[in-house]
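Subgroup meeting minutes
Present: P.N., E.W., G.H.
Scribe: E.W.

1. P.N. recapped why we're keeping a running log of single-chain structure predictions: easier to compare across weeks, and new members can see raw inputs and outputs side by side.
2. G.H. added today's entry (423 aa).
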Amino acid sequence: MTDHQPAKHAPVDEWESMLERFDDAAQLVNLDPSIHTLLRSPRRVLEVSVPVKMDDGRLEVFQGWRVCHDDSRGPAKGGIRFHQDVNAHEVTALAAGMTFKTAVVDVPFGGGKGGVRVDATKLSMGELERLTRRYTYEIAPVLGPDMDVPAPDVNTSEQVMAWLLDTYATLKGSFQPDVVTGKPLNMGGSLGRAGATSSGVLTCVREAFLRLGIPMAGSRAVIQGFGKVGGPLAFLLSSAGMRIVAVSDVGGAVYNPAGLDAFRLSDHHAQTGSVVGFKGADPITPDEMWSVEAELCIPAALANAIDEDVAARIGSKVIVEAANGPTVPHADAILSDRGICVVPDILANAGGVTVSYFEWAQSRQGYQWEEDVVAQRLRRTMEDSFLAVWQRADSLNVSLRRAAFVLATERVAAVIAARGIFP
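Output recorded in log:
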């Protein structure tokens, strides 16, 4: 492989990208102009200052947000991310993505998202806890089991959700486990939650390959990202008979045309914090990884990874988006012209929010479901949702992404029309 210098492009505004895709869906379904106007604006954007006393005695103030895009179909649902690049437009776009994602899999939620602009990797556990609790305190007025239900996201975990739940319970004077999902099992979490997003992606891979006539056994895959989603996916895809030929993370990338040993790579990653230096593969750059020939590409990192430059040279036949917003809008046309099938994020990675819904329902019932029940219902939901999107794409002769946005827009619009606007 030869080094490739990626072309420089202007920064992508995630909110404008989301509006572009929604506007396209609205035009395809001839959406009522008033509903179109309504959904082009988030219902609520809360911006807060989060003062935190650091371990060395300094006081630092971080900026945070909690956004509700739409709650027509149910309480706002969406994760909380702690990342140094978080901003209001990104969080608003992710909240809108959750509106459409929950509608695609037809769970009774709206779209929400939260974030704090902070490099969480540099915080001690004590600083992380104080940040979480103060952020929860600041956004508590908009949280509630029937109003806005957070979950983990980038750099947050079930421990962070436990702190959030405890802080909320202290403020409200009662324990309400249905105010948050992705929490520990002993606090009302759900069995099967940890690998739900990865399992949902696997189902979408199976369904796409089945309809495209591509056998999974022996097919090659590349994975961008080896974290909470990409790591488990390497195991799942390998178990399904696929050959993982390249993996990248923030440190670099590794390549082996004969296939990477997912178990050994996971052990190496756990010991070193990166796939870089794995002895069972050759080093390549993360940018080179996109050009590796394979049947499947899984972007499982942050947004805007597949721009026009990457889309023009990507070496895979199928892309299944495990990350949120990994493909910029202008790259879609390039991928379509090249005949590359893209299973969009609002369908592909909806396994996480589906099991979050199951967890929310269990917390309200006070009854924990068996793990096989969770797995069975997740698989059925993802299969049914994939089929609905595939059929809509076929009937409209459009891409799976456009079809998914059409299906979601119709479902949200139908509820808005039925409820009306008050007063």
